[in-house]
Write a structure and sequence with these properties.
The chain is α/β, with parallel strands linked by helices and 319 residues long. It has ten helices and ten strands. The chain has a single domain, classed as Zn-dependent exopeptidases (Aminopeptidase), CATH 3.40.630.
Length: 319
C-alpha cells in the first residue's frame, strides 16, 4: 500500500484540542509533550489518536480530505458495532484513493491538503454517523470517533486562520448501479429537481453544506450555478471524464434512483450553520474507478484536477 509522501517519521506525544494525541514529527530528538501548536505543526506532519486508528496529516492549503469508510483494521479488543440498520461494509480502496489524491496534489502544486483517515474497519467504527450509531454504543470507540471529528475541526480552524475559507471533500464509494459520481450537498433529490429560479428564490443553497460559498465566491455564481451549473463540482468532474449528479448534464437523479445527498460529516463540518469551510460528499462507483490500481490512479488524477479548478474558480486560490 502506498503511504505518505516523505520519510518515516519519529513519534512524539502532544495534547491537541483537549485530546491526548500521537504526533509523527519527522524530526530528531526525544519525545516531548506539547499543549499548543508548535513548530511540529508544519505541513506534512502526521498526527494520530493514541491508538493510531485516526490519522491526520497537516496541510498548507485550503483543501481538506476526509475518508471515514476506507479502514480495514479489526482489532479484537475493539467491539464490533451491533445496531439496527448499521452498515458495516467498507468503501473499497477509499483509504488508498485518499492517499493517492494527497500525493498528487503535492506533486502538482508543492502544497499539501489536510487529510483525515479512519483506519478502523466500518464494522468497528463509522465516523460518518452521529456517535451512538457510529460506535454501536461501544464506549471504547467514542474517543476515537471524537478524535476523528476533532482533527477535522482543527484542520478547518487552521484553514480559516491561514486562508480565510476552504473546502472539505468527504470521499466515499457507492454500490449504486450507476456509472456516475454522486455529489452530496446535504440537499434532498427533490430540491435538486427545482428549476433554477425556484431553487434560487427558495434560498435552498443556504441550507446546504456549501452555504458560505453561495454568499462569498470569486465568480459571483448563483446557488443553482454552484450546485449544477457549468462551474459546479459535478460539471468539472464530468469534464474530467467522470459523469456526476448533480451537474450541468444531470441535475438530479430520477425519481426511482437512489442518491446519497450527504452525511454526518458534511452536515457537521459544512457551512450550513456558519463557519469558513464548505463541505461536499463525493461518492464514486466501483467498476472502472476503484476496481484496479490503474483505474484508481486515473480517478485520483481527476479528483485533483477537479478540486484545483474548483478552488481556483470559486475560492480564488491557486498555488
Amino acid at each position: 500500500m502506498m503511504r505518505s509522501m516523505s520519510r518515516a517519521p519519529r513519534i512524539a506525544l502532544a495534547a491537541v484540542t483537549g485530546l491526548a494525541l500521537v504526533v509523527a514529527t519527522g524530526c530528531g530528538g526525544a519525545a516531548s509533550t506539547e499543549s499548543k501548536a508548535t513548530a511540529a505543526d508544519t505541513a506534512g506532519t502526521v498526527r494520530t489518536d493514541p491508538g493510531g486508528w485516526i490519522e491526520y496529516t497537516i496541510g498548507d492549503m485550503p483543501l481538506i480530505l476526509s475518508a471515514p469508510h476506507g479502514g480495514s483494521f479489526t482489532p479484537a479488543h475493539i467491539p464490533s458495532r451491533v445496531c439496527s440498520g448499521c452498515i458495516t461494509g467498507a468503501d473499497e480502496a477509499l483509504e488508498e484513493l485518499t492517499r493517492r489524491v494527497a500525493t498528487r496534489v503535492y506533486l502538482r502544486t508543492g502544497r499539501r491538503p489536510y487529510v483525515i483517515i479512519n483506519r478502523l474497519a466500518r464494522v468497528k467504527l463509522d465516523p460518518n454517523r452521529e456517535v451512538v450509531e457510529a460506535t454501536g454504543g461501544n464506549a471504547v470507540t467514542v474517543p476515537i470517533w471524537t478524535a476523528y471529528h476533532a482533527f477535522i475541526d482543527t484542520a478547518a480552524a487552521r484553514v480559516a486562520r491561514t486562508h480565510r475559507r476552504g473546502l472539505l471533500l468527504d470521499l466515499h464509494g457507492t454500490i449504486h448501479p450507476y456509472a456516475r459520481l454522486e455529489i452530496g450537498y446535504n440537499l434532498p433529490a427533490s430540491t435538486l429537481r427545482l428549476s433554477d429560479s425556484l431553487f434560487n428564490a427558495a434560498g435552498a443553497v443556504a441550507q446546504s453544506s456549501i452555504a458560505r460559498l453561495a454568499t462569498d465566491n470569486a465568480g459571483h455564481a448563483s446557488g443553482a450555478d454552484l450546485i449544477w451549473g457549468a462551474s459546479s463540482l459535478g460539471a468539472i468532474f464530468a469534464r474530467n471524464g467522470y459523469p456526476a449528479v448533480p451537474s450541468a448534464s444531470r441535475r438530479a437523479p430520477a425519481l426511482d434512483e437512489p442518491y446519497y445527498s450527504g452525511g454526518y460529516t458534511s452536515e457537521r463540518h459544512g457551512s450550513a450553520n456558519g463557519g469558513a469551510v464548505d463541505a461536499i460528499q463525493v461518492e464514486a462507483w466501483r467498476d472502472g474507478v476503484r476496481d484496479t490500481s490503474a483505474n484508481l490512479d486515473r480517478y485520483a488524477d481527476a479528483v485533483v484536477s477537479t478540486a484545483l479548478e474548483y478552488l481556483r474558480t470559486h475560492y480564488g486560490w491557486s498555488p
